[in-house]
Design brief:
Structural class: alpha+beta
Number of strands: 20
Distance between the termini: 48 Å
Radius of gyration: 24 Å
Largest sheet: 6 strands, mixed
Number of helices: 9
């Protein structure tokens, strides 16, 4: 399969989509999904991510702005004239067709000779680890296998862009992890351009080269998974990408790149991120809070409210002057019981000032 050479970028240039007179689903959105990369549109329900994906596919038309695939302006092209394939949440397999017939369907419709389409379908199934399943019906497969058939059906068309619409939401947690790894491996090995929609932040962190976080029809922030986790742009992104404790702080002074910050009884220096002196917020990752039962040590005083054992880590809720703090601790041997007095300090990472 010669997919790699066809991969093309996707460009949104000030694109807006309005339904009816008042519902703005996508509001003046601009971004570039580079050729050969997997870019995820992430956000809560109703934020505009699925509408954005459907506009790439040509299933929805933009009201204003331009959409390009590679160098071609496809803004007004119908879906049938765009070189894209979509993998749907619901698999959308034909129940009366065999697995092989399902995968070859798009090739047959396009007029390819039966022998060639059958051979391409076998290649596609081999890519997703389902060689030998050609004669089975979809009802004879597990959910994970059906989703892989749907991926194979999209792959054999060798599209310029492969689109994924919440592809794992019907799978259980363990299968979800397995199938997302398979999708990522195929995308990287073939050098595909993929645009992937999900509301699951862990899934987005796991599969993406870049993530575009959407909220209320606009882009809240875009960047690498590490950028978004370690340097969220605002309270929404901090809270949406991973767990974050959002606490009130005071910026006492600003000089060069750093701000002197007062957080309850702690004083610390953090990158100021263009914030001024006065009241602000800090986002603290749960794994960046360090807990000690030594009452004479420095730190914020608190009391263990809840302690939950989760096998490979502990989760604590600690009541402090900053409010209730959610803590993830790797030590599952020396656990701390509820109602125990503790001191809380901060690691050198995972603490960010946000507007």
């Amino acid at each position: 399969m010669g997919t790699e050479s066809k991969a093309a970028s996707v460009t949104f240039d000030h694109v807006t989509k309005i339904y009816g007179e008042h519902v703005t689903a996508v509001d003046d959105v601009s971004f570039v999904a580079e050729a050969g990369k997997l870019v995820t549109l992430l956000g809560p329900s109703g934020c505009g991510k699925t509408t954005t994906l459907r506009m790439i596919a040509g299933l929805e038309m933009a009201n204003t702005g331009r959409i390009l695939i590679g160098d071609q302006d496809v803004t007004i092209l119908p879906a049938t004239d765009r070189d894209v394939s979509m993998v749907f949440q619901s698999y959308a397999l034909f129940p009366h067709m065999t697995v092989g017939e399902n995968v070859a369907y798009g090739l047959n419709v396009s007029g390819m000779a039966k022998d060639e389409s059958k051979s391409r379908a076998e290649d596609g199934l081999k890519l997703v680890g389902l060689s030998g399943y050609e004669a089975r019906l979809p009802s004879e497969l597990s959910g994970g296998q059906q989703q892989r058939v749907a991926v194979a059906r999209a792959l054999v068309l060798e599209p310029q862009v492969l689109l994924f619409d919440e592809p794992l939401s019907n799978l259980d947690a363990k299968l979800r992890r397995q199938v997302r790894e398979e999708i990522r491996d195929i995308q990287k090995n073939l050098g595909l351009t993929a645009v992937y929609v999900t509301h699951d932040q862990e899934e987005a962190l796991a599969v993406s080269d870049r993530i575009i976080v959407m909220n209320n029809a606009v882009i809240a922030q875009e960047g690498t998974p590490r950028d978004l986790y370690e340097e969220p742009a605002d309270l929404f992104v901090a809270d949406f990408i991973g767990d974050a404790n959002l606490v009130d702080v005071q910026i006492k002074s600003v000089s060069d790149e750093l701000a002197e910050v007062e957080m309850a009884s702690l004083r610390l220096s953090l990158p100021h991120r263009n914030l001024k002196m006065g009241a602000a917020h800090a986002a603290i990752r749960p794994e960046s809070l360090l807990v000690s039962t030594n009452q004479s040590s420095e730190g914020i005083s608190g009391t263990i409210n809840k302690a939950v054992y989760l096998g490979n880590h502990m989760e604590y809720v600690i009541t402090t002057d900053l409010g209730d703090l959610f803590v993830v601790a790797s030590d599952v041997v020396n656990t701390i019981a509820p109602r125990t007095g503790v001191k809380v300090t901060l690691a050198r990472h995972g603490v960010t000032l946000v507007a």
